[in-house]
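We append the chain.
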Amino acid sequence: MSDLKHTIAIADEWAPTFRLLGDATRLKLLCSIHFSGQHALTVSELADATGTRLATTSAALRSLEAAGAVAARREGRSVYYAISDERVHELLHFFGAEHAAS
């Protein structure tokens, strides 16, 4: 029974991450960041890459940042994004997301 409790605890631990990844816009943004490299793309570049409106992209990035999945770095008026959660990074590799250099 101890193994079952451990398994259930893992499910509770991972559920927020899968909820975060369950949104197509957020997942597209994460894949774009992952492919392009850490702190390589701005909000507007991510909007263009994913085909989403700038406001939608900004809202999704705020959600990802609040959850700890991405980190932002400001350079002047531009904000660049990077994946900051190693588990999210591993999951992206698991389902086949690649890096540009791959």
User: Anything to note?
Assistant: The chain has a mean pLDDT of 92. Strands lie at 41-42, 70-75, 78-83.
